Amino acid sequence: MDRMSGDRPATLAAWLRTRSDEQLSALLVARPDVARPAPSDVVALASRLAVPVSVDRALDELDAATLQVLDVVLLADTDGVPAADLPAALPEVPDEMLGAAVDRLTTRALLWGDELLHAPDPVRRSVRYPAGLGRRAVELRLTLPADVPAAIGELPTEEREVLERLAGDRPVGHLPDTNGSGSSPARRLLQRGLLARIDALNVELPREIGLLLRGDRPFGPPRLRPEPAVVQRDPATVDRRAAGAAMEAIGRVGELLVLLEEEPAGLLRSGGIGVRDQKRLARALHVSEPEAGWLLELAHLAGLLDVGGPHRDEWLPSRAFDLWREQDLPARWATLAGGWLDSVRLPSLAGQRDVSGKAVNALSPDLVRHTAPAIRRSALAALAEYPAGAGLAPDDLVALLRWRTPRRADRLAPVPGLLAEAARLGVVVEGVLSTGGRGLLATGEDGAADGMRGLLPDPVDHVLAQPDLSLVAPGPLVAELADTLAVVADIESSGGATVFRVSEASVRRALDSGWSATDLHDFFARASRTPVPQALDYLIDDVARQHGRLRVGAIESYVRSDDHGLLSQVLGDRRTAAAELRRLAPGVLISGLGADEVLTVLREAGYAPAGESPGGAVLTRPPARPRAAARRPGAAPPPAARPLGGDELAATVREIRAGDAALAARRGEAVRQIPGVTTAGTLELLSRAVREGVPVWLGYVDAQGSGSQRVVQPVSLAGGFLQGYDERRGEHRTFAVHRITSVALVEEGDPAAS
Amino acid sequence: MNDGPLIVQSDKTLLLEVDHPLARDCRAAIAPFAELERSPEHVHTYRVTPLALWNARAAGHDAEQVVDALVRYSRYPVPHALLVDVADTMDRFGRLTLVNNPVHGLVLNSSDRAVLEEVIRSKRVAPMLGARIDADTVVVHPSERGRLKQALLKIGWPAEDLAGYVDGQAHPIELDQSGWHLRDYQQEAVDGFWAGGSGVVVLPCGAGKTLVGAAAMAEAKATTLILVTNTVAGRQWKRELIARTSLTEDEIGEYSGERKEIRPVTIATYQVITTRRKGEYRHLDLFDAQDWGLIVYDEVHLLPAPIFRLTADLQSRRRLGLTATLVREDGREDDVFSLIGPKRYDAPWRDIEAQGYIAPAECIEVRVALDDEERMTYAVAEPEERYRIAATASSKLPVIRRVLDRHPEEQKLVIGAYLDQLEELGTALDAPVIQGSTTNKERERLFDQFRSGELRTLVVSKVANFSIDLPEAAVAVQVSGTFGSRQEEAQRLGRVLRPKADGRQAHFYTVVSRDTLDSEYAAHRQRFLAEQGYAYTIVDAADLAGPGEVNGPDWVDEPAD
Predict the structure, then answer these.
(1) What is the DSSP string of A230-264?
(2) Which residue of chain B comes nearest to A502, CA vs CA?
(3) Which of A3, A573, B144, B549 could pair with B128 in a Cys bridge, judged by C-beta atoms 3.0 to 4.6 Å apart?
């Protein structure tokens, strides 16, 4: 519209007004922080765009190539650089890339203007060293030598090297510690007036010298997108390897938690787990200590391990663990991988020294980094851009991420560590995302489980018993059988399969926990797909025989009561015959059956017996396994910006436009009122407008208290309400008169109202 | 998921399902780099150790083959970390090589400078190295060749020894294959050894290790020093060599406590070599007495520590180790690897048994209940006396007699560890006793009688643990042993595994006192035998059927199919 008149918009707000609805939508999508709550008009939008935090955030998300284009505008001597001059400034960058970069910048309103590109002041302030150049000598309060090229020309090599280094990516350098001798190349340069001191330790290279040293490349080498060598792997192989890693992770975490169930680890006062406990677990799992630390972290991230116990000072498996172990393998993996992806903890930091030189323990609160989920997602998302079977080596990925978000490069330090973790989990194999990893990234845990399904073996429900008293479970076991085997045998080797060994000690343990020799014989006959070896039967019988001798009477049960009559009744009752009761003494019946059986028989016969320990105490049920109540650390994602939906976006743009139109409406003298007090003037003006069919400009405060400005075509005024059509918002509305803060008639010929 | 026979465990054990159709191929593929640990009936366990991987590298296999074999036969996805670890471990081998430099003699050469720097800085290795010739080469004193290899192995950078061997003084030796032939596996063992230069051949007892030695000598055609465990074994070697090669009695010398002959082929006992007087080894000269072209170590798993030290000085000679098992109770397998050489050939017992070269064996544990008096004695005995009291209980005697009665027509050995028990048995069974103090002459006489069938039963002490050759012993009864030692078990079983003329089954009985330490140790042995794949039956003494009875020794089950 304005272009018709030939003059360019003079301010950001004016320029914004010239943008189409689509362009404004794109701006709001790219900088969602300015969209909520909806700015009332373009001026409000422009001032929000100038908020430093918002500018930093927008700049942080730009890649190096785009930032370099911005640098060109920032470094220009005049405000406003013609877009047509850009190719000359960056001759090595292809034109279409330049165009795309300008587009990205103007879309985000980090540059504005159409032919002439302007950089808003907040952007200038946010980019501290454009193109890696220092401030002007004037700003640094430095007087340069008269003939700078000559001064540089006669510098010794050492000094020149310092200058060259500072003319690179960063114009600020650290003064070396010279122990008072007072002479180093940098100090000599300070004396020559070629460097500026900015504080006790740091120096800055003035922009003039930096530009001089850079010669015909004032903006440095072109920051083109790195094109790293793509790693190609057979997707099927990747998935198989991922499944291998997944099985390993699932198995190890399961073993770890069972170990912690038997003997919980103590919680350190500083949080985390003690080195001694970690060592113990590493030894029991036959893994290295860092590996044990990682498994602890992984279990914790997935919500399977947390602090619990009577005094809340122990690391215990959580209740979720009980559910987890019942799940199929893909679901178990998805829980681990999902917990890892969204966690704010960085397990790879464990074992590193903090500033005070103390190593950080696993599970310690010091491992929390709130940027972790975002870094993980951005790294994996970069890999997900490659097709299945293709990916990047870790170093290349880091380089690419560094190019993508150079202003956030300091956040990328944990990337190699988290890639190693992804590999241990089976999310990534040699830099290539597995199908499960892709699923995880795209659709969360369900996608992860689907991606792994078919790759992980189905649980088996049998073992192979061997004459050397080992039992081989040729695959992951169903949970029930695994639990039983854990009692009657010891695990000797785990992995894809599990090797159990039955020993005297394990049989005794089974007998101790209430199994009979017959139970054991039956169990092995049922569980083993191969014939039960004779040696195993002998072992059970041998141990059982010894076992029986040691617990004389203990396998038998007694029924006692002070009521001898009741006992006689029980003894005479035909329904209790199954309990095989016999009177041992007045008041005492004994049975060859176990107490539980006798109890059952008696209960079924309608009596109300209570179990009793040998000491005479009433037996209660065995205590439940200790469990911690866990939540997944970081599972509740930070309240990140909810993406702007299409409807919301359209509504917001409409709101801005309407507010803007209202703002721009040329209007007659306004009638202002204090809310709640309906002045005669307001009512008069409104009724005139209704009568004459003239649009009115309204200042209005809605029920939520937010103010807006509108241009309304009034229809009727009755009962304290004004009915009208808001053209910009495209809606019929009723306005409470007492909420109208000001009114003016819109005069004819107003362009915004047309 | 493919349906392979192999399951790869996180702890680098490999489980091989034997009944799987691909099991044979898989075994062949993994044998070069995995040690067979257990071979019970259904699932065999192999273990991938760094040593085994380096062995494989030394034998010319590369990491790619190893990874391929694991991935191809594995039923479940193989953990990537494990494959990486395999590749890394194998990659460590061969970074350092020992070679002969035309100018400087023996040198340690490196293809990786960082490794060489690390090695040179190692306290353990540095003293064995001489001057640095260039960035990649260091002089090694020839006498340190063995010790250096040992030390490098310990710090995880095993050196490949390409320095070659001296030929030694030539001496014509031919195999005299009239009426017999070298078996296929023996020939493969010799070929494997000769191609590798030095190393260890693992064959079960009774599979003809002596012949592998003889064939290796015929290959070397040079003066040979044979080191054996004792004099009787030495004489056995001599007999075999005279019978199976062109060597004559005069060419073979015996270097033992009794005689000190040095001939082109000299057989020495470990004992005489390790005898010290006034703190010095008196017979070291033997190693320099001839320009030996080949040194044979019999029963390498028993090689005493001093011999290792001496062997370290003999690295330029070809060395052949023979053994039934690389398991050493002292865990010095890596010394065998670095000083004698890697495993060059290995065949599981059951394979050779299946080929009919060793007798099938049945292992039976007979359980004897002690009488009340013995139980009381056992119960109140000091802990260190308990095993002895249980093992030598006289309740065993009638049972032993009953066991022997089951096999009236066969050659029987009664093996024990306690001399007074053996004496007692000898008297009760009316059989001669051979023990440590029996003179060699007396031993030979009794062995001859036993061989000819004049004697049906011999009672022997621990001497039977080592190479004595009793071809027709078909029944062994062990009454007491050395705390369940696996090695002893292997040796004793070996006594009866030599193939019988008529292909009869061998019987290996263990008489055990029930509910005592004796049966606890028996459990170790039982596990060992079951792991080797032998059928193992437990019988109560009361149920022991005699010949002709149901379940007796000659009882044949109705064919099942």
Answers:
(1) PEE--HHHHHHHHHHHHHHHHHHHHHHHHHHHHSP
(2) B527
(3) B144
Higher pLDDT, B415 or A668: B415
Sign of the torsion angle spanned by Cα atoms A127, A131, A135, A136? negative
Integer Cα distance of A686 and A716 in angstroms: 9
- Spatial contact of A327 and A479, defined as CB atoms under 8 Å apart: no
A538 and A562 co-located in one domain: no
CA distance A62 to B136: 49
Q: How many domains does chain B have?
A: 4
Mean pLDDT (chain B, rounded): 82
Q: Tens digits of per-residue pLDDT, A343-396?
A: 999 888 887 777 777 788 888 888 888 888 989 999 999 999 999 889 998 889
Average pLDDT rounded to a whole number, residues B473-489: 76
Q: Out of B1, B15, B83, name the one closest to residue A472 (CB).
A: B15
Residues of B in contact with A470 (CB under 8 A): 38, 40, 43
Question: Cα distance from B528 to chain A (closest Cα, Å)?
Answer: 7
Q: What angle do CA B458, B462, B467 make, to 5 degrees?
A: 80
Residues B295, B339: Cα–Cα separation, whole Å:
12
A423 vs B515: CB contact, 8 Å cut-off? no
CA A358 centroid distance within chain: 27
Please state the three-class secondary structure of B9-40 as a single string: ECCCEEEEECCCCCHHHHHHHHCCCCEEEECC
Letter for the amino acid at A707?
G
3-state secondary structure string across B450-496: HHHCCCCEEEECHHHHCCCCCCCEEEEEECCCCCCCHHHHHHHHHHH
How far apart are the C-alpha atoms of B233 and B230, rounded to whole Å?
Answer: 5
Q: What is the pTM of this model?
A: 0.69
Say how far apart CA A583 and CA A587 lie, in whole Å: 8
Residues 6+ apart with CB under 8 A from A252: A285, A287, A295, B10
**Residue A480: count of CB within 10 angstroms of its CB:** 11
From the CA of B510, how many Å to the nearest CA of chain A? 14
Q: Across chain A, what does the average pLDDT equal? A: 83
pLDDT at A380: 92
- Please report whether residue B413 resides in a domain: yes
Whether B304 and B365 share a structural domain: no
In whole angstroms, what is the distance from residue A164 CA to residue A143 CA? 20
pLDDT digit string, tens, across residues B282-313: 777 777 777 888 999 988 877 777 777 777 67
Q: Are A528 and A495 contained in the same domain?
A: yes
Q: Are B14 and B84 members of one domain?
A: yes
pLDDT band at A666 (very low <50, low <70, confident <90, very high): low
A538: nearest CA in chain B?
Answer: B538
Q: DSSP secondary-structure letter at B438?
A: S
The residues, any chain, with a CB within 8 Å of residue B66's CB and separated by 6 or more, are B33, B53, B56, B86, B87, B90
| Coil, strand or helix at A373 | helix
Is residue B555, in this structure, part of any structural domain at all? no
* Chain-chain contact of A495 with B523 (C-beta, under 8 angstroms): no
Residue that is written with structure tokens 């009787």 in the block: B232
Q: Which among A240, A466, A535 has CB closest to B77? A: A240
3-state secondary structure A390-424: EECCHHHHHHHHHHHCHHHHHHHCCHHHHHHHHHH
Q: Which domain holds residue B46?
A: 6-92
Question: Is position A725 within any domain?
Answer: yes
Instruction: Show which residues on chain B lie within 8 Å of chain A, measured between beta carbons.
Output: 1, 7-11, 13, 15, 17, 38, 40-43, 45, 71, 74-83, 515, 519, 523, 526-527, 530-531, 535-538
A703 and A732, same domain (yes or no) = yes
Residue A594 structural domain? 557-604
Number of domains in chain A: 5
Strands (E), B229-376: 252-255, 265-269, 276-277, 280-281, 294-297, 318-323, 343-346, 361-368
Show which of A515, A550, A585 is a domain's final residue. A550
Is A542:A549 a contact under the CB 8 Å cutoff? no
